[in-house]
Design goal:
- By secondary structure, the chain is of the alpha+beta class.
- The protein has one domain: 7,8-Dihydro-6-hydroxymethylpterin-pyrophosphokinase HPPK (Alpha-Beta Plaits).
- It contains four helices and eight strands.
- The strands form two sheets. Strands 1, 2, 3, 4, 5 and 8 form a six-stranded antiparallel beta sheet that branches.
- Helix 3 runs antiparallel to helix 4.
- The radius of gyration is 14 Å and the shape is globular.
- The termini are far apart.
Length: 160
Amino acid sequence: MIVFLALGTNLGDRLANLRLACDFFEKAGLVTVDKSSVYETEPFGVTDQPWFLNQVIKGECAFSADELLSVSQKIEREVGRYETYKWGPRVIDIDILLFGDEILESEKLTIPHVGLADRNFVLIPLSEIASDFIHPLLKKSVKELLNECEDDTIVRPLLT
């Protein structure tokens, strides 16, 4: 199954956090097909905190959606995530954006990710690696969603 994952971090060594999460995914059985550039992004929701680094990963795996959620949560803990508050600072945050063209809504998981179409920090890196991918519910390409997005938070490529 082709999956798209959003990674975000604004605490500690942010680049190392992204790399570590990617390494853990590889060890867990997710084959990385593509990665976006890393972007530095203004905080969304709660603005009084450090800026984030965000990246989107395209991967291939044999997991079910629930298994991928469990693996993602385990990796968050391994990288050092601890609970804060909604939209608060994070050592790492991993969101399942898309799981093939599947649509899923359960108590634990909603796919496609509910905020995908409203957030530049997700759409910009996703568009970099999958601009023609069609959102299964909205029936629009990622590029179209980005063009229609009204989020005006700053998202800029990280200069390394």
